[in-house]
Amino acid sequence: MIRLQKYLAECGVASRRASEKLITDGVVTVDGIVVTELGTKVDPAVQKVTCDGQPVKREQKVWIMLNKPTGVICTSDDPQGRETILDMLPASSTRLYTVGRLDVMSEGLLLVTNDGDLAHRLMHPRHHIEKKYQVWIERELTPDEIDRMLKGLNCRGEKLKVLSVTSLQGRARSPSGPRTARRAVPTERFGYTLTLGEGRNRHIRRMMEVLDRKVIRLLRVSVGPLRLEKLRTGEHRNLEPWEVEKLHKAVGH
What we know:
This protein is an alpha+beta fold.
């Protein structure tokens, strides 16, 4: 037996939280009966589950690592017609969604999957999945400012902090991929690697705003045990089975 919302997430219907809304909205049935109570358990081997009238069944898990360029948004559809991460991937018969997001002007490692259950665990704060970013700014951070980042900065009612700050050899030259080379920005700036234990919306950019620093480039280089490494800007690849296993271990699953 398995909780209905977890089963929907495992089948790639939606994330676990979104699956809960589908249930409470009354669009999920079990053996032809509408179920709206969260926590309902089902036995997929003998019971028939539908969502919006369509049969639900487990699909083969898909895990993709993408090196997101700037200008691409992390949604499946955009009313403004901008390029989305799904436009960069091969057409798929299964619903894919991102594990967390990067804002439109940020770059780097993005995981895309139909494994709603594991994706939910990776995003939940209690699992403390660390993420590393490289950020380039126009002025060097002072030791006092770095100390404030480690202790936490107050920004519009939220306390934002980092776990670590490491300089990228002082005044660093940031690399330019094929999708970023056309930007007319200075080629030299101060670079840092920042480690987050819990990411809030525009976390790093908001911290830099508090410190009166302009972000020139922001690149995510790791999520938990996975590293961007040699994947070029705009490229993607399927995760290896051992990499998916590492994600399971990271959340104790």
